[in-house]
Design brief:
mainly alpha; elongated; 4 helices; 73% helix
Amino acid sequence: MDYCHIDIYEVQEMEIDVYLFFMREAMIFENSKTDEGREYLRNCWRMEQTKPDREGLRKNFRKKGG
């Protein structure tokens, strides 16, 4: 309600997919305000990744091995 600036009755009338979208956006918006929240969001993004960051790995191994 606060994120969209609407009342509870409008929230109740939303389609579930629209409601879930706004809930996600509101959570991201609120977490992006603090350092702890931004760290949480970075960790969430990292945990969703399915492909390796090859360039990042190369940089890390170059530093440790060289």
